[in-house]
Amino acid sequence: MAYAQAAATPMRTARAAEYxxxxxxxxRLNQANAGRxxxxxxxxxxxxxxxxxxxxxxxxxxxxxxxxxAQLRARLFYLYRFTADHSRKIRAGSAGAEILVEINTAVxxxxxxxxxxx
Length: 118
What we know:
- By secondary structure, the protein is an all-alpha fold.
- Helix content is 74%, strand content 0%.
- It has one domain (13-111): Four Helix Bundle (Hemerythrin (Met), subunit A) (Up-down Bundle).
- The protein has helices spanning 2-8, 14-34, 40-62, 70-91, 98-111.
- Helix 2 runs antiparallel to helix 3 (40-62).
């Protein structure tokens, strides 16, 4: 009986889990950016979470066992570098976070199959 219940429960794919994490971090970054004047520490925490996300994605695409096409892996790694550099500019007060939300949103569209991720 337990097997039948487990079999009826849909399995989450790695892609779906990745989508959920990126969507959650993107939503949080977007909301924190909108309220950054009222809660700057919260904004910095959301920005740091986004940086950690991209660091993990970069480590994954840099590994030889990653099955994505080489060109897509290179583009995603470039986005990691851009995100890290842009985050430093945001902390220095010379840039906004909107482009980071746009990048994440484009990746989400790619994960949904709505176009290129980068």
